Amino acid sequence: MSKLYSVAALFKTPDDIMHAASKVADAGYEKYDVNTPYPIHGMDGAMKLKSSKMGYYTITIGLTCMSLMLFFMYWVYNIDYPQVIGGKPLFPLPAFVPIMFEITILTGAVLTVAVMLIFYFKFPNNAHPLHDSSYMKAVSSDKFGVNIEAVDPKFDLDKVKAFLASIGAYQIDEIYFDEEEVNTKHKILDSKFVIGMFLIAGFTSISVYLHMNKALYLPPFDWMLLQHKVTAQDHSDFFKNGISSREPVEGTVARGFMPYLYSEDPDGASDNLVNPFVADEENIALGKKKYLTYCSPCHGDLAKGDSRLNGQFPNGPTLHSDKLLSWTDGRIYHVITEGQNVMPGYKKTVTRKERWAIVNYVRKLQRALDAKEEDMQ
Amino acid sequence: MSNHETKINYIKKDLPKGFLKFGLPLLIIGIVSAFIAYQVDPMRASFNNIISLLLIVSVGLGAIFLVALEHIAGAVWSVPFRRIAEHQGFIFLATPLLALPILFNMHDIYEWTHLNVVVNDPILYQKSPYLNTEFFYARSIGIFVVMSIFLFTYLRNSTRQDTTQSQKTTKINALISAVFMPLFAISITMVAIDYAMSLEPHWFSTIFGVYYFAGTFATAMAVLTLLTLKLKSNGNLLKEINGNHYYSMGGLMFAFTAFWMYMAFSQYMLIWYANIPEETFWFLPRMENGWEYLSIGLIFIKFIIPFGLLLNRNSKMNPSRLKLAAFWIIGAHIYDMYWLVMPTYNRMSGTEGPVFGWIELGFISLSAGIILVFYYLAANKKNHIPIGDPKLNRALDFRI
What we know:
The complex is a heterodimer.
Chain A: E1 2-11, H1 14-26, E2 32-35, H2 43-46, H3 54-80, H4 93-119, H5 134-139, E3 144-149, H6 157-166, E4 171-178, H7 179-183, H8 191-215, H9 266-272, H10 281-299, H11 322-326, H12 329-338, H13 352-369
Chain B: H1 18-40, H2 42-73, H3 82-89, H4 95-104, H5 106-109, H6 115-120, H7 122-127, H8 133-164, H9 167-196, H10 208-234, H11 243-274, H12 277-280, H13 291-311, H14 313-317, H15 319-349, H16 358-379, H17 392-396
Helix pairs in contact in B: 1-2, 1-16, 2-3, 2-4, 2-8, 2-9, 2-10, 2-15, 2-16, 3-8, 8-9, 9-10, 10-11, 10-15, 11-13, 11-15, 13-15
């Protein structure tokens, strides 16, 4: 089954092979190739090759993939999951440019190799007549070779041999090949190949699964959602009623909390409550701050009932009336705590100390507008 | 590669007449219009003067860099044009002519020369140890003197080698270049920072020197290519110089066109992304009042069009197409310098939008005149090929 593939000639120096290549090209052979252990500058010129079209494939592939990537980024940022990042527009082109640049180069390079493999080397076929020849061994170490193929229209075995000898070849071989081996078309759907691919896929999947989910398993950070304790609103099997927290015993008072005993009893408050805080500078300052925050919107900055909300809201009365002047501290404290008429109670928002401080401050305001003679001294 | 010695038969020939025929009128027109411009509108004239200066520094200092690059890299292919680059470096000696009007007119141009502004401005005050008039003069003079010394050393060594053909000179040149390289890096950065970046003294960009250098390299290479093509077609060079050499020159122009884009984009993207007012304000005037069209145009003129012009292999081999690309790159560099400098003119003079008129054309004519006349002065009646260089034979045999 052996068939002549080519006549291969070996040369010793790069200058010889340059000379030989130009001679072969001049002689009009078309189906020939030069094999050298390393690239030789100017060989394409000596062989009179036209410039390669590979560059056009590369730029077409690169620009196509760049456009696809640009569209993909547009889709992600504008259609699938619009999200403002760093205050930038939804389509931040300058930020995409480096990615487009990388994609152009990466796909251009990788897919050019793929195109070469498929079109030039006829992948998946990997047989070539020159394989395993002594010629190939020589040119892949330190010799330079030219081989003229038998399919060349001008090919004639004796003439070619004589020609190669005349241009200085030191060794001339005939290369034969097994037609069946070289022209075998490998089927993609070959049963062995398909089963092999499935086995590889299964093995890879199982090993990755075991590796990532068993051997290297780390619980994901659950943002404190799962805690090993009973939280306030949880169900609990420990108690009969299934509630995790217990009712406090009747009469329990929280630490630092003073229960208010006169919520339905203004007269009791008036008679029994005494301001426990001394009206010193610090206390007055606290009272002023809280008064201006909570009271002044209705009662006015100086408690004259002339606030900025006057006329738009039920008017807060003046705190300088005779009724107020005759009230005890306890009575005022009671009104602040529980409210009166449309005035709401402030026990939720203002603490006990702050309420007493407000009382002190109101007293101070009253004294300021209704000063006694002895104050002048 | 060749083991047979090529006999170099170089016949000395006069320079083409065009250098003086076009150079002198351009120079005279340039000088006259620059003189009138300084009388009519000194501020606009000074800003155009900066553009001219940056262009001449690119052409001259860039050529000295190309010479040094060949020595330090031991490059072979570029040996036949090294003498042209050395003569082109002579153009650098014209820089004082352009720098002096700027130095006398600094008050019109540079905000940091106004003492009352500097004292009341904490940023300028902090920068004043570098940005002050005396140190500015000292830097300019220092750069000029040091680089000129290197230029004359290279020229002398090279001319001497024509007769001695000594291998030793090549080695000495490599050593000199090793000293030259860091000094050049500092010099070109200082030129860029002093004359262009300090126009906006509050702004800073650490990549600015490299940005200017990228344009400088491409421009110096483009002028060298044009000179080589002109001298080759006039028969001043050897016939062995062919498409392979042109290809490499085109390749370097191509590479530095892409490198310029890389630098310009890096500068823009970082400032755009960080979005800090103290950096972004430099780009703002370039994005309004008509400057936005020039800014978008810059992408095309300085990158996309020359990239396309030089992408194909044939475009680098073919002299007429290479000539087009080289002219384009020089024009693009002028455009780039205009884009760098003129927005500050708007701010200083209170005008709006890009201005272009006879003053701009006059200074471009001045630059072209300087290039042609100074090259003529340097190269007339000299060898245009380093005939004594030991690498010359290999260089002529160069193949890509």
